[in-house]
TrEMBL record:
Family note: Belongs to the class-I pyridoxal-phosphate-dependent aminotransferase family.
Designated name of the protein: Aromatic amino acid aminotransferase
Gene3D superfamilies in alphabetical order: Aspartate Aminotransferase, domain 1, Type I PLP-dependent aspartate aminotransferase-like (Major domain)
Superkingdom of the source species: Bacteria
């Protein structure tokens, strides 16, 4: 039987991670997988996480099971972080999941149970795993126009036109902030338009929130999703704690279902817990507990927001520095858009052959679609990366 297993090509993003690890050339630069790195090129455990872990080690008396949906205190803390006061708590069902990816999967599972014929609309482009998970599940999906490669911004008119063609039964996936892979986000006025259009068509939004705090700040980054929650009767959210708490391998995530009524939220809550039971029973707790402690202890929370701000400023500083270096190297403004985008990623407009050449000839690694991770740069590597990019994209 197992000899009949189909072949599966490695994941494109994770394959770059492997190729980079195997490269023995000195001076190699990794702008591939979306992992934060500090100015020294490390992905450190956040100091606040170390503190919370030390306290937890002292305090924790049991590792017994908690609840299928995870700890209600974790639900409340994450719901508050993402949605603020946008919607009454009794209209929101919450599910702890293994990472944001687990939340994405459980949101899709719930949507399909609600509507077996659900169609998912993905921005073009999107995080490749969205389409991959949908294909694996056999759920139909289509793209809506999103990115304008000519400006490095949003194709606002195209997006709104495509969203206006959605209807009841459709699920529209939106990145809450720091769009992966483009770094191009809707502005507040765009979010208002999106809310209006979806309100007219009856399609339900699903927000993937993997980078809150990496763009303009914790509140600013959540403004779009909160506006949708305030305006529309229903919405799904997939939240990740991997990046903004640096808890990648602990697998911190949460699926939230904003329902039209408290009664519907109660039903959704039971359904979500059942989905966890079918997949892996109890969700991981360690990272979720650290996040809960950090968000609910005022001192820890202050430390966290300070550390997170420094991470954000480092990435935005790298954006400005790279845009400037590219302007000097290329003698043009064609890469100026990088400075104004947000989050970890930008598309530099390289085709797969150029990406391969930069990797093979100059040990500069990025994803095949030309996506770079801005956090992979340091003050030392920016001039060289700019030189390589400008030369290959001449
Ligand atoms: N969604 C997007 C857009 C992402 O970029 C990621 C990657 O980090 C995730 C979801 C899920 O991340 P994780 O499963 O590591 O929490
Ligand atoms: C990325 O896009 O590089 C990250 O989100 C990591 C991943 O799981 O793909």
């Amino acid at each position: 039987m197992l000899g009949q297993l189909p072949e599966r090509a490695p994941d494109k993003i994770l394959n770059i991670m492997r190729l980079f690890a195997e490269d023995t050339r000195p001076g190699k630069i990794d702008l591939g997988v979306g992992v934060f790195r500090d100015a020294a090129g490390r992905t450190p455990v956040m100091a606040v996480v170390k503190t919370a872990e030390a306290r937890l080690l002292e305090r924790q008396q049991t590792k017994g099971y908690i609840a299928l949906a995870g700890d209600p205190e974790f639900h409340a803390a994450m719901r508050g972080l993402v949605l603020g006061a946008a919607v009454a708590a009794d209209r929101v069902a919450a599910l702890a999941t293994p990472g944001g990816t687990g939340a994405v999967r459980q949101c899709f599972e719930a949507a399909r149970l609600a509507n077996p014929d659900v169609r998912v609309l993905l921005p073009e482009p999107s995080w490749p795993n969205h389409a991959s998970i949908l294909d694996t599940m056999g759920i139909a999906w289509a793209s809506y126009r999103y990115y304008d490669a000519a400006t490095g911004g949003l194709d606002r008119a195209g997006m709104l036109e495509d969203l206006a063609r959605t209807g009841v039964g459709d699920l529209v996936l939106l990145h809450g902030c720091c769009h992966n892979p483009t770094g191009a986000d809707p502005q507040p006025a765009d979010w208002a338009e999106i809310a209006m259009v979806l309100g007219q068509t009856g399609a339900v939004p699903m927000v993937d929130m993997a980078y809150q705090g990496f763009g303009d700040g914790l509140e600013a980054d959540a403004a779009g999703p909160r506006l949708l929650a305030e305006t529309l009767p229903e919405m799904l959210l997939a939240v990740s704690g991997s990046k903004n708490f640096g808890l990648y391998r602990e697998r911190v995530g949460m699926a939230l279902a904003v329902c039209a009524t408290p009664a519907e939220a109660t039903r959704a809550q039971a359904l979500l817990a059942w989905l966890n039971r079918q997949a892996y029973a109890f969700p991981p707790d360690h990272g979720a507990r650290l996040v809960t402690d950090i968000l609910t202890d005022p001192d820890l929370r202050t430390s966290w927001t300070t550390e997170l701000s420094a991470m954000r400023e480092l990435m935005n500083g790298n954006r400005r520095a790279l845009a400037q270096a590219l302007q000097a190297e290329s003698g043009s403004d064609r890469f100026g858009f990088i400075a104004g985008q947000r989050g970890m990623f930008s598309l530099i407009g390289a085709d797969p052959a150029q990406v391969a050449a930069m990797r093979d000839e100059d040990a500069l690694y990025m994803i095949g679609d030309g996506r770079i991770n801005l956090a992979g740069l340091t003050p030392e590597t920016i001039p060289r990366a700019a030189r390589i990019i400008a030369r290959h994209l001449r």
